[in-house]
Amino acid sequence: DNQAHVDIDVYTASAELNWAVGPGTLTILPAYRDSKLSDVTYVPGFRVTDNEHDEQTSVEARYAHESDNLKLVAGAYYFNEDRSGLDGRRLLDVEQGVNAQLVPTFDSNIRSYAGFGQATFSVTQQFRVTAGVRYTDERKEQNGVTISYGFPNATPPPVCSGAAQFDLGTPSPPLFCATTVPLV
């Protein structure tokens, strides 16, 4: 098949903002990324179609100070990522002969918050003490459906295993069983 292609659009924006605040520097690092991927690839026996939309936002804020005996930095970080199928299309199709796996609906979200700090104190020119800490809270959510079409376990009458149900509406009855697995 000659329909293989890869279309990737990525748009990004980021900045670094620095302000002198008291004896140190406040730095803010915002970033945004929006990417869209649509591709059809072939490996022996497979056709794989992928349609993804991914959007990421992050921001880091930190305060740094340096003197003769003390260096310190403290800050916070935020990250958010949303991923879904592109323009209402299925996220993924994997076709292998008479077997197929489809992901028609899919949404995921990753959200992360962090706080951090580090300080180095020079006791002498040759001896320093460094201490640091970081705390991260990250949460991931994923919702979607995976549908698998494949040969049933036995010939007529078809017997499908597990949650699979014989479905006359599948692409090539009576060969297929449909399995729908919610991704939670």
Kindly describe this structure.
This protein has strands spanning 5-14, 17-21, 24-43, 46-66, 70-85, 92-96, 99-122, 128-150, 165-166, 177-183. 3% of the residues are buried. Strands 1, 2, 3, 4, 5, 6, 7, 8, 9 and 10 form a 10-stranded antiparallel beta sheet that branches. The two termini are 35 Å apart. Strand 2 (17-21) and strand 3 form a beta hairpin. It has 184 residues and is mainly beta. The model is unreliable at 153-159 and 170-176 (pLDDT under 50).
Keyphrases for this structure?
184 residues, mainly beta, 10 strands, 72% strand, elongated
| Approximate shape | elongated
Beta strand count: 10
Number of helices: 0
Order of helices and strands: EEEEEEEEEE
Oligomer: single chain
Rg over C-alpha atoms, rounded to the nearest angstrom: 26 Å
Largest beta sheet, briefly? 10 strands, antiparallel
Percent helix range: under 10%
Mean pLDDT: 83
End-to-end CA span:
35 Å
Low-confidence stretches: 153-159, 170-176
User: Which structural class matches the secondary elements?
Assistant: mainly beta
Q: β content, as a range?
A: over 45%
Short structural description:
The protein is an all-beta fold and 184 residues long. The chain has strands at 5-14, 17-21, 24-43, 46-66, 70-85, 92-96, 99-122, 128-150, 165-166, 177-183. A hairpin with a 3-residue loop joins strand 4 (46-66) and strand 5.
Secondary structure layout:
Blueprint: E1 5-14, E2 17-21, E3 24-43, E4 46-66, E5 70-85, E6 92-96, E7 99-122, E8 128-150, E9 165-166, E10 177-183
Antiparallel strand pairs: 1-3, 2-3, 3-4, 4-5, 4-6, 5-7, 6-7, 7-8, 8-10, 9-10
